[in-house]
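Archive entry. Fields below.
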Amino acid sequence: SQQGEEDPQALSIQEGENATMNCSYKTSINNLQWYRQNSGRGLVHLILIRSNEREKHSGRLRVTLDTSKKSSSLLITASRAADTASYFCATGRSSNTGKLIFGQGTTLQVKP
Amino acid sequence: NAGVTQTPKFQVLKTGQSMTLQCAQDMNHEYMSWYRQDPGMGLRLIHYSVGAGITDQGEVPNGYNVSRSTTEDFPLRLLSAAPSQTSVYFCASSSPGGTGAEQYFGPGTRLTVT
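PREDICTED_STRUCTURE:
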């Protein structure tokens, strides 16, 4: 079974607005990662947060992690039409295997 | 660097046929994985490898074989294709170490089994 569940499944916003996606998982983790997938393409790594971290920033991305609630959120600020894509969270129970379990993803549409 | 390459990009098989999906990486990564992506299901791990000669099963290994004879290559074999194996297959690689386990994905192989 898949580790993560993402919410919402789909999100539609206007350019310039912020987009927030949430991910919940079931078991203890070593790290949690977010990936983006443009239509018909492979996944691209966005950001990684370790289990002992609570918040991380990268450009317009902000990720939070609450291990007590087994949940994470991805915030994209000042969204652009180019941010239109599917976003997936993935959890790693160890940094020594390269084994990730993915959620089902959130499809984000940013309207110009 | 070419990164992670996959061939073929598209493939149509008849039920019962066998084939090998190729995956290669030129980043000297130790870890390699195969995933399948079905509509509304996200990615599911099929098999993974932590180094040459070492492989292990993921969530959905049935019907698939892998081997890892070199660091660079990680082929996925479908033994007897079934319509349930119609999917998009992604290969990924990553490197251990303090920076974490972010994975680099290939462009995918879209497989249809009729």
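CURATOR_NOTE: Chain A touches chain B through 27 residues (CB under 8 Å).
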